[in-house]
């Protein structure tokens, strides 16, 4: 536990000392909020109002309220996976070699890296909460507190994915290229930025196997007051995620993320152990 905590603490300290990385990882979500939340909100709300037939149901749709949890989930995804890049950098600078010759188990190293990346990603997500008053959003304070543990859980699962890639990829350039190819489809096919209803069958399959889809859906259901929305708005916002015609409950989505996190952490630790044997 001391080894895990030391590696965990080191990654967090490195993140906050790296001002360029802190600013860069925070500026991208703000850019997405400005583009999708500000620039496209009018057209998206008009389109959704037309889909819902106008009237009170269409007036209830707030695109910024819809997209904000998705932007937070996107931040968790990008920060969690790209934080694993530090493993390759540590190999290049010799720090990883020093750790590997110590009596610390490789499982402890992998878990410490995973927790460090998840913590950094969660902090990044929480910083976005400071924008809620500026955006004119009115999320319930209790809901924001309730979503934090799930944010950390989702970040753990996604950091396990990044750790798995970092354990088998040797260069930083290769890691960045592979991750960028993976990250963008995971974002756009998760419902983070726009509803994922009525998609082609082959694309719908990708949506349903994408773990970020369930993370985004859970965050929206926790943060948005779903009970106050009409069925038309719920359907337009894509909050009725279903598989084989059966609507998925929030408990099942959280259970899926837990299983995904456990599997990814196990695969990452095994791969990390073999790659650095």
Automatic annotation (TrEMBL):
What Pfam families would the database entry show?
A: ABC2_membrane
Q: Does the keyword Metal-binding apply?
A: no
Q: How does it sit in the membrane?
A: Multi-pass membrane protein
Q: Where does the record place the ABC transmembrane type-2 domain? A: 20-275
Which residues are listed as membrane-spanning? 20-40, 66-88, 109-135, 141-165, 177-196, 254-272
Cell compartment(s), UniProt: Cell membrane; Membrane
Q: Which UniProt keywords apply?
A: Cell membrane, Membrane, Transmembrane, Transmembrane helix, Transport
User: InterPro entries, per this entry?
Assistant: ABC2_TM (IPR013525), ABC2_TM_bact-type (IPR047817), ABC_2_transport (IPR000412), Nod_factor_ABC_transporter (IPR051784)
Q: Which PROSITE patterns match?
A: ABC_TM2
| PANTHER family in UniProt | NODULATION PROTEIN J (PTHR43229)
Assigned protein family: Belongs to the ABC-2 integral membrane protein family.
From the Swiss-Prot or TrEMBL record, give the protein name: Transport permease protein
